[in-house]
């Protein structure tokens, strides 16, 4: 199975050039990951079953969206959710969901993450609410649901870009710009991944449930050539 490298999302808003500060690539993501590793070392390890609860998660996500819109902080809170998504490790989630850990310690961890990520106060208040309501174990689901609602609200097309090596910011920007022209979407959000088995180039997957694909990878071209010749890739080797 090919190795996949997880990366922060890349968003182009009306084709705006990428920035190095917090925003397109979340410059603080590395600091946040470091913070989560520190936290996970202190976590009490439990065998915990975090049951999915889509309806409750969707309800909290919808409430967060409405709050963000009402306070004109939609972009800031969405950026915070993207950053949180990169550090929601299993150890961190077990720590926050562990009923034996005092609430004060959980709040202290949240405050540390907020400080490292320079999150908005509204995001911190929302996380503390989840702790109070004992719903913090649904954080990953809430983030996913919120992202879907955000994309609907802002006419954002989400696309996964899988490349043989990590793409530079400018390369991702050009891909997003071309995809924006093709789809007519107001905004494009790229989710970069790395898969060395592609050999070179990249593959863009987008549309409803990934229904559309642009294959510009070397492995894809090899498969096309093999198919046109009526042979398998293994036979060409």
- Tally the helices: what do you get? 10
Number of strands: 5
Strands across the major sheet, in which order? 1-3-2-4-5
Distance separating the two termini = 20 Å
Q: Main β-sheet: number of strands, strand sense, barrel status?
A: 5 strands, mixed
Q: Helices, strands, pairings?
A:
Elements lengths: L9 E4 L15 H14 L11 H17 L3 H14 L2 H8 L5 H15 L3 H12 L6 H15 L2 E8 L5 H15 L3 E8 L7 E5 L5 E4 L2 H12 L3 H4 L1
Parallel strand pairs: 2-3
Antiparallel strand pairs: 1-3, 2-4, 4-5
Structure description:
It is a single chain. By secondary structure, this protein is an alpha+beta fold. The protein is built from 10 helices and 5 strands, in the order βαααααααβαβββαα. A 5-stranded mixed β-sheet has the order 1-3-2-4-5. It is elongated and about 65 Å long. The relative contact order is 0.16.
Features:
single chain; alpha+beta; elongated; five-stranded mixed beta sheet; 10 helices; disordered N terminus
Sum this structure up briefly.
The protein has 237 residues and is α+β, with helices and mostly antiparallel strands. It is 53% helix and 12% strand.
């Amino acid at each position: 199975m090919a190795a996949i490298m997880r990366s922060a999302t890349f968003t182009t808003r009306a084709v705006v050039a990428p920035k190095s500060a917090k925003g397109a690539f979340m410059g603080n993501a590395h600091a946040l990951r470091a913070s989560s590793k520190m936290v996970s070392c202190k976590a009490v390890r439990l065998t915990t079953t975090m049951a999915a609860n889509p309806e409750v998660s969707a309800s909290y996500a919808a409430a967060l969206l409405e709050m963000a819109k009402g306070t004109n902080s939609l972009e800031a809170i969405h950026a915070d959710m993207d950053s949180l998504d990169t550090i929601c490790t299993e150890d961190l989630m077990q720590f926050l969901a562990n009923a034996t850990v005092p609430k004060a310690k959980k709040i202290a961890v949240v405050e540390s993450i907020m400080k490292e990520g320079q999150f908005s106060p509204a995001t911190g208040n929302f996380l503390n609410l989840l702790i109070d309501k004992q719903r913090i174990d649904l954080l990953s689901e809430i983030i996913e649901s919120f992202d879907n609602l955000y994309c609907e609200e802002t006419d954002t097309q989400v696309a996964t870009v899988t490349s043989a090596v990590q793409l530079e910011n400018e390369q991702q920007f050009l891909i997003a710009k071309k995809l924006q022209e093709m789809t007519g979407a107001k905004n494009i959000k790229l989710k970069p991944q790395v898969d060395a088995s592609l050999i070179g180039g990249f593959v863009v997957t987008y549309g409803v449930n990934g229904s559309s694909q642009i294959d510009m990878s070397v492995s894809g071209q090899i498969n096309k050539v093999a198919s046109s010749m009526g042979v398998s890739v293994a036979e060409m080797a």
